[in-house]
Every structure is written in C-alpha cells, then in structure tokens.
Design brief:
This protein has helices at 2-44, 48-60, 62-89; strands spanning 99-100, 113-114. It is mainly α.
Length: 120
C-alpha cells in the first residue's frame, strides 16, 4: 500500500511540474526580450512626439496635430520611456509588454496604448 502511494505521489509531482519545466526552458528568451524592449523604448521614446503628431494630424487635421498631438506625444514619450526604464530594472521577471505596440516601429501608424503588467 505504501509503495502505491509513493508511486502515485511521484507521478503527481512529475505531471504537476512538467508545465513549469517548459516555462523554465523559455525563461532566457523572455528575459532577453524584455531587456531588449526596455532599452529600445528608453532610446526611442522621444520619437513618440512626431509619431503622435502625424497620427493626430491625419485624424483631426494639421493644426490640431501640431498642437494637441505635440502635447499628447510628450505624454506618450514619458510613458514609453518610463516603462522602458521599469522593464530594464525588472528584466529578470518575465512579463507581457505594457506598451502597445511593444516597439515604436512595430506599427508606426497606430497610437500608443498601455496595458496592465501581466506575468507570462
């Protein structure tokens, strides 16, 4: 009876740990991706200003894009740069990107948005 219990316990532990082993295999890539996106977002955050001015100008008109788009771009620049700095500081904890699109060049014609921090 004790032998059956030990076998069942060993099988239970093996099957419950198998998803964690798969996640552990992906850990280096996830950490590297987060560090890389953090560095890229800190460096390219300033590009949010002309990007947002162009998007707002196409949608609302040139004058509105040059004024409101400029100030909205400053907000997005601060957001992308700060989130990039947080990603660099916490790159050892793999999470999903908080900035959408994760890189400014991914979808240049889409306005930047932000999501909550989620574990991968």
């Amino acid at each position: 009876m004790k032998t059956k219990f030990k076998i069942i316990l060993i099988l239970f532990v093996m099957f419950s740990l198998s998803p964690k082993l798969a996640i552990a295999h992906e850990y280096p890539a996830q950490v590297g991706e987060k560090l890389g996106s953090g560095i890229a977002n800190v460096v390219t955050g300033v590009i949010e200003i002309p990007k947002t001015m162009m998007i707002t100008g196409r949608r609302e008109g040139t004058t509105y894009g040059m004024t409101a788009g400029f100030f909205t771009g400053i907000v997005h620049m601060v957001g992308r740069t700060l989130i990039g700095a947080v990603d660099i500081a916490t790159f050892m904890v793999p999470t999903t990107p908080m900035v959408k699109p994760p890189f400014i060049w991914d979808d240049f014609h889409r306005e930047t948005s932000y999501e909550l921090w989620k574990m991968r």
